[in-house]
Amino acid sequence: MFAFVCLLACGSAALAASSNGVAGAMPAYYDGQLFLINFKELPPAAEQTVLAGNQSVNTIFTSEARLPGDAPFVAVLDAIQGDGFNPLWLEVEIEFRPGVTPYQITRDDDVTAARERGDIDLSSAGEIYRCAVIGAGAGGGAAGAAVGAVAGVAGSVNGSAGDMPAFYDGRQFTINFKKQPDGAAGALLAHNGSINTIFMSDPGLPGGQPFIAVLDAIQGDGFNPLWLEIQITFNPGFTPRQLIRDDDVFAAQASGEITLSSQGEIYRCAVVGAKN
User: Fold this and answer.
1) pTM
2) Number of Cβ within a 10 Å radius of residue 128
3) How far is CA 274 from the centre of its chain?
4) Which of 45, 113, 121, 267 counts the highest number of beta carbons within 10 A?
5) What is the rounded CA–CA span in Å between residue 96 and residue 87?
6) What's the gap between Cα 236 and its chain centre?
């Protein structure tokens, strides 16, 4: 289930949360247009504190219902950056009433209208997420459009592969990665409602030092071997610096220090060792 902070549920099955919460990238609709969102669930102990200290939070509408053809329901947002945006999101679950065939909703106003017509009921378990909109897709329909939100993978026919360092929650690991071929990305995303995220910054740090990647999960922490690369760009006036936690990435994005973007590049990754 999702909640606060950017519950970009691709409209697929609910995610099981670990003590650190689930994290990843998912498509979601806002005002009829499909976006790609990166999300991080807050730990259960933090949710009530966050809600008590934030009088206004955004909402992400999700549904575990499957649409005709067994397509997933893609989540619906009530705001994006620049439009009453708050990086904290409360998940609200949509349940279609008996006798109503589930259908894709693409605007929060349509959620309200569906409830008033008696098509749906709304409920919330108070789950909270921290989210960021990282890309926009074509404003088309349902599951097919969701795949298009992260289309455009570049690379060789077989993709690149190798070992590299990466940070997770302040600790450095070694990961083995293999970039997925161009033609595979769409199929992989179509069958995976949620994938993990690896944050990169190609320009690097001052002095020619590389920016070490940041992971949002490792094995046992909402882990999925498929990873979407998200590029970090430091905005004018900010000196690039090494970030070591995905929470740091979200905080930097929320403060205007960085911009996040994605070209839809997909990797299959495994953590193979930790740096002592």
Assistant:
1) 0.55
2) 28
3) 25
4) 267
5) 28
6) 25
CA distances from 164 to 53, 93, 243 (A): 39, 39, 16
* pLDDT, tens digit, 9 for 90 and up, residues 201-236: 999 998 888 899 998 877 665 555 788 888 999 999
Q: Please, which contacts does 111-116 make with residues 24 or more away whose CB atoms are closer than 8 Å?
A: 111/61, 111/76
CB 35 within 8 A of CB 149: yes
Cross-strand partners of 60: 77, 91
Structure tokens given for 248: 């740091």
Q: Which residues pair with 213 in a beta bridge?
A: 166
Encoded tokens for 195: 């994938």
Start-end of H helices in the chain: 44-53, 108-117, 142-148, 184-190, 246-254
Q: How many other C-beta atoms can be found within 10 angstroms of the C-beta atom of residue 103?
A: 15
Percent composition of the chain: helix, strand, coil (DSSP 3-state, to 5): 20, 35, 45
Q: How far apart, in Å, are the Cα atoms of 217 and each of 4, 41, 107, 199? A: 19, 11, 30, 11
What is the C-alpha separation between 246 and 38, in angstroms, rounded?
A: 10
For 234, the token pair is 């430091």
Query: In whole angstroms, what is the distance from residue 231 CA to residue 34 CA?
Result: 19
Which 3 state secondary structure label does DSSP give 253? helix
Domain boundaries, the chain: 23-148, 161-274
Rounded CA-CA distance 71/85 in Å is 29
